[in-house]
Amino acid sequence: MTAALAEKHTGTVLEPVHSTEPPTEHRRRGRERAFDDVPRWQIYVPLGIYLLFTLVPFYWMFLFAVRPTGSTSLLPWPMTGEHFSKVWTERSFAVFFQNSMIVGVCTLVATTLVALSGGYALARFDFRIKNGFMLALLCSQFIPGALMLVPLFEIFKNLQMINSLGSVVIAETVFQLPLSIILISGFIKNVPVSLEEAAWVDGCSRFRAFCAVVLPLLRPGLIAVGSFAFVHSWNHFLFALMFLSEQDKQTIPVGLNTLIGADSVDLGALAAGGVIAAIPVVIVFAFIQKWLITGFSAGAVKG
């Protein structure tokens, strides 16, 4: 009775209000409100502590590299380049840098090409042992490289490849391939096969359709796989130590090890060598970080 009188006097009918906002948008706004309710110090303090533990070792290395010998200053002033000059000329770091660059670039190219063909086969073809092959690739990631040193050494010895940069390139490529093939395979699965079929209808062969249609879409994945292979081979110590004996064939990780003596360590030269070794890696990640994140995330969607 009261509701009828209210409708008569107001002339309007009260209807329940329904939100037209999508559920996903509603949840996103809820998370944003929850984030806004968190005090900022609870976010910035943990991040600051993390950055402190991460950046202090790099600052300490840079400080020893540019600080004069015997100085105890905590600030990089006055700066000197004597340690860089010493390791670059007297300790043959120019040769080590060149050898590491050759190994890194060759490993990048070989890993990318082989992983591209293997990933395409896993993504586009069905064969009887496909699942078993994928399982073998995953299980191979649990095998430490140290366990393979003896058989690899015997193989390279019979092939007369000991003390050759090619042996390190092959070893690095072999150990990078399982993860690289899995990533490339997942990335190719995200490319609709209908695009290739349309190219086939237009008269393209499978290889030409792959190069013209699929390959341009794989750029983030290829950059991710190639950069990961380059950085790993650049920093890897074990294979270069075992397969390279002459000083003019050694890489930067092995060269850094030679700066550590039995009774003393030249901290300035060691820090300068560490800075030289870190520069290419920092440059690579600075330029490809967006492609790297996109490539790894896209390759992990399907597999």
Structural overview:
With 303 residues, the chain is mainly α. The protein is 72% helix and 0% strand. The protein is built from 14 helices and no strands. The protein has helices at residues 2-10, 23-37, 41-66, 82-90, 93-124, 130-140, 149-158, 165-189, 193-201, 206-214, 219-235, 238-243, 252-258, 267-299. Helix 4 (82-90) crosses helix 14 (267-299), helix 6 (130-140) crosses helix 8 and helix 8 runs antiparallel to helix 11 (219-235). It starts with a helix and ends with a helix. The model is unreliable at 1-17 and 299-303 (pLDDT under 50).
Which oligomeric state applies? single chain
Straight-line N-to-C gap: 65 Å
Number of strands: 0
Which residue ranges are poorly predicted, with pLDDT under 50 across at least 5 consecutive positions?
A: 1-17, 299-303
How would you describe the shape?
globular
Taken as a percent bin, the fraction of beta residues is under 5%
Order of helices and strands: HHHHHHHHHHHHHH
How helical, in percent, are the residues? over 70%
Which secondary-structure class do the elements indicate? Answer: mainly alpha
- The Rg value, from CA coordinates, equals 28 Å
Main beta sheet = none
Total number of helical segments?
14
Mean pLDDT: 80
